[in-house]
Amino acid sequence: MGKFIVKRLLTSVLILICVMLIIYTLMHCLPTNYIETMARQLSQRPGNTKSAAEWLADLNAQYGMDKGIIGGFFVWLQNALAGDFGISWVHNIPPTEKFMDVIGVSFILGAISMFFEIIIAIPLGILAAKKQYSGIDYFVTVFAMICISMPTFFVATLLKLVFGVQLGWFEIAGLTSARFFDTLSPMGQFWNMAWHLVLPVITIVIISIGGLMRYTRTNMLEVMNADYIRTARAKGLPEKVVINKHAFRNTLIPVVTILGGSLPSLFSGALITEQLFSIPGIGYTAYQSMIVGDIPFTMFYLTFMAILTLVGNLIADLLYAAVDPRVRLS
Questions:
Q1: How far apart are CA 58 and CA 66, in angstroms?
Q2: How far apart are alpha carbons 238 and 242 in whole angstroms?
Q3: Which H/E stretch holds residue 280?
Q4: Does the N-terminal or the C-terminal CB of the chain have fewer CB atoms within 10 Å?
């Protein structure tokens, strides 16, 4: 196991460097020169003593833009490995500092959404497989396809229209009630923020459960038709034991792939959902940075996403051995 982990970590480092090179190349080749725009803005700030040309030279040197793609990449990589991603042009603080300010909201939103996604999608997928071609199976299948087909902006807009505008149960934007949040007790502030997360959580769950539901059903059907399941039934084992102990354990093997790949969503933020509901998480912050050309924060965010994806894949590989003793890492 130790050798496997070390091998995967070394492979992941190599992949990460390649991904970082792609990220830097994309930023380097942007059709709009955001560095020139930022240099002009810095030169116009009160108390500034540098000209736009001097700021441009400083920024180009800081990000290696004056050394070509390869040379500039190694300058940026050296700084990034030291935890220095520059200063966010929008927030005027290091991207890592801004990240720490907003990651908590996104993690809570992602964790709650994933919890409900798992407890809803997996049981319904198993139930649909057990009742194949029944009314329950058709209902679950249709419901899953509807969830898969609906885009995020449509679900969010519909929820805001019905529950926010027409019924008035929820506020449609923000994390807190600006009018009276400061007058609430600590517990009142907690429940106020929790109430604002209800619609975003429902949005994420709706658009996420369809794929996991279908995936669970398909793999459950495949497992239930296996020879060892028929053997277990022939031995007279109760159906609950056959389904829950034998079939479900093997169904988890491919499901682990999806759950491991979902790790980035816990920390990367639901970019579209956070933007639609104005939730100040990492996804909302990254979107705002991208549309105004905040290159330091954008590069940090994309690098962070790449790291999460690699870690998620590593965790999925390790979980295979936990749910399937037949897997031999050697």
A1: 10
A2: 6
A3: none
A4: C
Among residues 12, 5, 10, 32, the alpha carbon closest in space to that of 295 is found at 32
Reading the block at residue 9, the tokens are: 């970590």
Instruction: Evaluate whether 306 touches 265 at the Cβ level (below 8 Å).
Output: no
Full-model pTM: 0.80
- For 278, residues 6+ apart whose C-beta sits below 8 A from its C-beta are 173, 174, 175, 284
pLDDT score recorded for residue 32: 55
pLDDT in tens, 78-128: 888 888 888 888 888 899 999 999 888 888 988 898 889 889 998 898 889
pLDDT (tens digit, 9 = 90+) per residue, 19-72? 999 988 888 777 656 777 777 777 877 777 778 888 878 877 777 777 778 888
Task: Tell me if 170 sits within 8 A of 196, measured CB to CB.
Answer: yes
Q: Which residues contact 187 (CB under 8 A, 6 or more apart)?
A: none
| Cα–Cα dist 138/150, whole Å | 18
How many other β-carbons are positioned within 10 Å of the β-carbon of residue 235? 8
**From CA 295, how far away is CA 88, in angstroms rounded?**
8
Q: Where are the alpha helices (DSSP H) in the chain?
A: 2-28, 34-43, 52-62, 68-81, 95-130, 135-149, 152-159, 186-196, 198-224, 227-234, 239-241, 248-261, 263-268, 271-277, 282-291, 295-323
The pLDDT tens digits for 134-166 are 999 999 999 999 998 888 889 999 999 999 889
